[in-house]
Give the backbone structure.
Amino acid sequence: MSAIDATERSNDRSLAASCAVLGAAVGIFGIAFGVGSVAAGGSVAMTCVMSLLVFTGASQFSAVSVIASGGSTAAALAGASLLAARNGVYGLAMSRTLRGSLLKRIVAAQITIDESTAMSSAQEEPRAARLAFWCTGLSVYVFWNAGTLTGALAGNAIDPEKFGLDAAFPAGFVAMVIPHLRHRSGRRAAAIGAVICAVTIPFMPAGVPILCASVGVLVGVKRP
Amino acid sequence: MCISWCAGGGKATMTWTLVLVLSAIAYACKVTGLVIIGGRELPEVADRCLSLIPAALVSALIVNSTFGGDDGIVVDARAVGVVAAILVATKRAPLVVVIVTGAAVTAVVRAIGLAP
């Protein structure tokens, strides 16, 4: 074994470890989702199937928070679908990194989410980028679903408001929005989205203000 | 199963329809980007607008889940927790620390009776 191989292996190991830590952190969010979903009237089975199949945190939280605030299934679907659309954009970005068989890319599609895309695009080497994508995606998948099951089972027993878990949703969204505020157009889109939502909440059915907020993306029509 | 299907007509609740339709939509989005149009070029303007979806929608979700209530805007203990979460998040704290701070501060504000 050459010295270069040894360095490469130790780099791979530390990259895989940070991907696993990221997955574990997301697992805590999975617990909050499980609790929130059961509190919104979902069964344990419904909640777990949602995490296994939908597997995109912001959309799932959005759907559950719309239902919890009294919105219809259609309103919940509409907002969650708009949020899910960004994974399509991540897929476009990842398609340059992820080559291989059709079957492999069909599996990769399910784990194309914020975390796997962010971890992968932070790597310089194409090989490390692929490793980061798969390690992060699979680790988040395992922890998110384990967390969902734990939260869904515990959710029957605990009062989410007593533990402030209703504030865990917006707090998580705060952490998720910050990377998008580094650019001027992101800050403007976020400000427009927040203001439109606040102004329309008193007049619109639950969930619809989030759809109205999508007007903020029109900031992108103008060249930066 | 019947309970969830038949419970409609009145109070909103989670349904299998929501879970399964959202699953199909979410996977369709992922597979469209990565497999179907992956590698092709989009018009630059569409690319720019799509990349702003998370900024616009996630900030709206923050407002909605912080102040949303049965009667329009409600300011309660959640607002204090979210301000604490913003302070921690701008110090580049990891996701889990931000979430735990938001929840813990909200729980404490409620426990000492400062806000509902």
Q: What stands out?
A: The mean pLDDT of chain A is 86. The CA atoms of residues 32 and 163 of chain A lie 11 Å apart.
